[in-house]
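Sharing a chain and its predicted structure for anyone who wants a worked example. Both blocks are below, sequence first, tokens second.
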Amino acid sequence: MNKESGIHFYINVKNFNNVVMTEENQCGSVNHAIHALDTLFRSVEQFGITRFNDIFVVEKITGARLHMYFRSQNADAIDALLTLTSYAYQVSLRINRDIPKYKTLTDFKLQMGADVGDFFVFEFNHSDNDHENILSEVTTIGYPANFAAKLQGIAETSNLCISSDLYKLYDDDIKDLFEKRTSPSIKKYEQSEYYSAHMSLFSKNYRIDEEMEAVTEYANKVNLTDMQFPVATKLLSFDALSKGKGKTVTGVPLFADVRGFTTKFYADGSNLEEMAIETQSILEAMYNVTMVHGGVHVQFQGDREMALFHDFGDEKCIEKAIIAGMRMIDKVSDTMLDIHLGAGADYGKMYAARIGARGERDNILVGETVINSDRLEDEKAGKNEIAISPELFKELQDINSELVSFFKKRDGGEYVATVGYTEFLRESENLRNIRDTRNHSYNGAWHE
């Protein structure tokens, strides 16, 4: 891992879940949504790389969020952030208003967040599922990455939110564009205030007509009818996918996240190295469980593992996915003091592809099933819990799975298990012994 200092910057399509669900329900596909998301993020990435190549880095796309950072806190980096903010906003307007192939698509609504400080860059190398290629995934670890993501999450539509530390670095004429805000949700980050401004307020120090024409030209390069998503007939390998050549899968997207972990990073960075090492260990542990249980690692999202388990041929994935979630809980809690996971999973159809300007290297998995899994992990699963949808629970019932008895229905309709894999095995053995006793299928003298 390498330690760096600079500005973390997130751009998120705030309503992308709604965009996907609307198109999937109306059209039975998500071609428009994936195509438009690629146009947006590819254009922003290319603009940043071209204009600010010496300091600009694209980390990854996670869902509908583009994570970038600037390797500097100097005046150039500070100004570059606002230029990129303005440009991304203009691209979203072009997509919403002026490109005919997106006219049936729900308008994109952007939100952005940024913070400044020290962080570590962790490069994770692993083989693809065909074991033919070595893949590299970069993840940044540190307080500014976490807090920038939080600011992006609370930003209003078409607003950029920045930390008070970043705000202090701007000249007075830029500071006047921002409004001071407070939120109880940032107190756990040891912050009392942040600053927000509408994206349209920043000057367009680029040739907007020329740049927007380039956006339209790129959007028209790949026709929506040329995008293909055939059903996967073997275990998915993202390395073989692109925007135009994706796959349709039926299965379980599994999200596993460390509960309350981001607040363990001190705002002054004094425990950064310690937390970076701990984060790396957690991510590697979750990844290893995914692979051992026949899953597909989609990507790391901060301190969260996103994995895919899917059906192909006669092989069904639902038990493997849930057991993998249980094993992740055990693996992390057994090896790290006071660290607890929460996991979420649904079952259904999804669409896998790769997008982005850097050789289409960013894995994306979209569909209502993914949205539900994300929500179940984020909102329904507590410490050492796995929350699953009614649909997934019914699938377990249909195959008469032993896992069924470990899930209890809650008021929201979800089913939640509060056991890890070790406890599942122990309790399953107890249940079998009870059943054997009831059925008199044991040797009484032996048991005596």
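Comments welcome. The radius of gyration is 23 Å.
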